[in-house]
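Bug #77: duplicate submission created two jobs. Keeping one. Sequence:
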Amino acid sequence: MRSVLSFLAVLPFATGSALGWGCEGHQMIALIARTHLTPAVSSAVDRLLRENPIDPALKRFCKDRPDDLMADAATWADDARNIEKTADWHFIDIPLAIQGDPTDEKEAMKWCKPSPDGNPGCIVSAIDQEWAILRDQSQPAPLRAKALRYLIHLVGDLSQPLHATDNHDRGGNCTEIGFFSNEKNAKPENLHSIWDSKILSRDLEATKAAQPQYARTLDRDFARGESKVDVLAWTWDSHRLGAAVTYGDLKPPIPVVPAALGTADEAGCTEQRAAVAALHISIDDEYVSHALPVIREQLAKAGYRLAGLLNQTFQ
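Kept job's structure:
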């Protein structure tokens, strides 16, 4: 989704990973979650969203707007990120060089940069804050509905490995590589957009599946049911996959940048882009054969995680 230049033009220059899963991915996560909500919770979610709707004046990027209220709400956080000033809520830039322990909160939160206004500085603290608001029945309904929309989106974002992994390249946004370079009109793409949408869109086109059908297939293929709420474990799960597959399966490999360098500034991004370009990496069927199963499973897991969170909230 980052690769859509007309949309990027209105976004500020972010310091890390930006958009996650694109329209199709986020909407399918919501559809999977829907099937695992209890009837009472499903009704409560719809009631909160219906009675506190998205501002009709807000420009929505996704043109195919699903009838399902959760699926429609799933992309709102990207549309509203400039207005809400919440760009940093969508990622946590844990360096690729860090090998995390799923129970190590201190190491994870080291990379959650503080916000000067006291608001969350990364996706982990944003999920914690918005879930607390949603659970608090004393909060105004419009604020709880906004928190719900954030959670529907951010739980999805956190399942994308490049929203929890950084190699001094802004979660793959400074890493430009070939994507099926042997095809007509092929051009370099950034690694983040390849994982956000390029590989998934290619599979949707190959299977000729509409989003509801594809979501049902994912749910059938993984069939794990709802997941307990453990944001820290979700974070390290994505980071592990980012290291093992997203970066790990690139050929030739990209050198792992020391963690001390952190995420790249504008000059560092330009330098990293040039260094990777010199490696002439191109993604092909071999890479996709490893990446696509991970992408499909992460979409399904995000749906199960979201269902678990909402069932616990509205029970």
